[in-house]
Each structure stands twice: as C-alpha cells, then as structure tokens.
Specification:
The protein is α+β, with helices and mostly antiparallel strands. It has eight helices and 18 strands. The strands form four sheets. Strands 1, 2, 3, 4, 7, 10, 11, 12, 13 and 14 form a ten-stranded mixed β-sheet that branches. Strands 15-16-17-18 form a four-stranded mixed β-sheet, with helices on both faces. It starts with 9 loop residues before the first strand and ends with a strand.
C-alpha cells in the first residue's frame, strides 16, 4: 500500500451489531481498513449492541489507556427468570412469578447496587481464573468461584416497568434501565444480583452501550456504513477527546522524543495519562507524571 493510500492512524467508533463478538468486529475492520493493526478498547458481549472503540494502525497503542473509562448503557432486565449466563443467551434455570414485586422494592434493590460495590462477574465472562477464561471453565462443567471485584455504578435508573408473560407462562417484570459505570462492570451481573435480592431471579434481555468515555453513539458508524466509507477519528483528535492536553515548545518536544524525562507542571499531577502536543499541534506522546517528571507511556511523534 502506498503512503498516500495508507490507512490513517486513529480510532473508529463502531455501532456493534447484535450477534457479533468484539473479535468478529475487529476481524471485519481489518478487511475494511486493509490492515492487520486493529484492536478494541474493551469487549462488548455478543448479544449487546452499541459503542465499540477500535484503534487502527498506531492508535492501537492508545487502547490500553482508553479502556479505564466510564461507560453508559441502556438495557432491559427481566425479573422472574434466572439463566445460566445471566442474559437471554443462556438456558433458563428458574422461573418465579414476579408480578407482586413492587416499584419500591425495585428501587431499594437498585440503591444497593449503586455506588462503589463489590461485584462477582458472570461465570461465562472472559475473566481469567488461573490463566484460563471463566467461560471456558464453565463450558467444561467445572465448579469454581470468581472473586468479587470493586466496581463503581455511578448511576442506575429505571425508566419503565412493564408487566409481561414469559414463554413458559410465568408472569414477569421487564425493567428498562440506564446504567453509568466504571470499566469492568458487568450489566448482566447487576441484573442477576437485583433479581436475587428481590427473591425472583433476573437476567438481562437487551443491552445497548451508548457511551465509552467521551465517545458516544451519535459518532458511531455501523459496519455497513464503514464498508461504504471508512471514518477514522485522527489520532490527535482522539487523544484530545480522551486525555488532558499538554502543549510543549519545540525544544521540549525534541527532548521528549529523544527519551528525556521532562519536568511536568503541577496541574498534571495525579491525572493519569496526559497527551503531549508540539507547537504545530502534532500528537507526540502519552505520558504520566511520576515524581514531577513525565514518564512516557507511548510515543507517537
């Protein structure tokens, strides 16, 4: 591929279709972008749709630093049925009449699952237990426990409560919810735990991710749209949207690119990854403050 036709470095914000794994989307994007250098910033379950952030070419180096961001979802939780996978993909293991569950009880249950909580991921998640994916252990019938992990659910709201009847005739309740949470939070685990707390069981029947950090659904493109026209957010714009910005003069830009640890202004202390730009607005590097100096995380200049 000539330099002129080379795929630009940057992020692609995909509106993932249901039924695709995150790896399926990466594989599809490799074909669309004509490059092997494609990665994703955090997986999305096959059942779920919505925002999946991909990095193309040199922007793959940004992804590990983008993953630790806040995420936002719209979903539907069915109270009254428990499944093997905590979502609609799994076999139903228990059905209980949920028609007597009150809105007050739902709100009280949701309050317990809001804020800084300890969450046990689903057994069919991609969490590694002693180096082996949890879902692989579950498929092989292993009996194992996943340790609870700290996550933050900053907002968990119910928009609608709908009476419904499941296929087996059980009266159930469908809750339309929105969740804003930290990376690593499992929405289907919230559904499972809410149902368990209410004594009727619960699972997730639909999920749409509407935001990952600063990247929202309104800037996402479907795979079909990307096949027609590849929309890549330039790496400099992507970094500006995701990280604090530090502009340096030409002399310090040169020192930074030569491996010199620059003194960092106090305003960046404790802020995590910071994007550094030269006087021409070129994105040079991601750094973080360490003892007053700029420690390089990834260099792009």
């Amino acid at each position: 591929m000539t330099q002129k036709n080379r795929t630009p470095d940057g992020l692609v914000i995909v509106d993932k279709p249901s039924g695709f794994t995150s790896h399926d989307v990466v594989a599809k994007m490799r074909g669309i972008a004509r490059t092997r250098r494609v990665g994703h910033a955090g997986t999305l379950d096959p059942m779920a749709t919505g925002v999946l952030v991909l990095g193309v070419e040199r922007a793959t180096k940004l992804l590990g630093h983008l993953a630790l961001t806040e995420k936002e979802y719209l979903g539907t939780i069915r109270l009254g049925q428990t499944t093997l996978t905590d979502d609609a993909e799994g076999e139903i293991t228990r059905s209980v009449d949920a028609s007597k569950v009150t809105r007050e009880a739902v709100d009280a249950g949701i309050a317990k699952l809001t804020g800084a909580i300890m969450q046990v991921p689903s057994k069919v998640s991609a969490i590694k237990i002693d180096g082996v994916r949890s879902y692989k252990r579950a498929r092989e019938g292993e009996d194992f426990e996943i340790p609870a992990r700290p996550v933050t659910v900053s907002s968990f709201a119910v928009y609608d409560v709908r009476d419904a009847v499941a296929e087996d005739g059980t009266p159930v309740l469908d809750l339309v919810v929105s969740v804003v949470c930290s990376s690593g939070t499992y929405i289907r685990a919230l559904a499972r735990d809410l149902g368990a707390d209410l004594g009727v069981g619960g699972h997730l029947t639909a999920l749409r991710r509407t935001r990952v950090g600063p990247y929202k659904l309104d800037s996402a493109k479907t795979l079909d749209e990307l096949q027609q026209e590849l929309a890549v957010m330039p790496i400099a714009d992507a970094a500006t949207a995701a990280f604090p910005r530090w502009d340096v003069d030409a002399r310090r830009a040169g020192l930074l690119l030569n491996g010199v640890r620059l003194d960092m202004p106090d305003e960046y202390a404790g802020r995590g990854a910071v994007a550094v730009y030269d006087p021409e607005g070129r994105f040079l590097a991601l750094v973080e403050e360490q003892k007053g100096k700029a420690k390089s995380l990834a260099v792009f200049g």
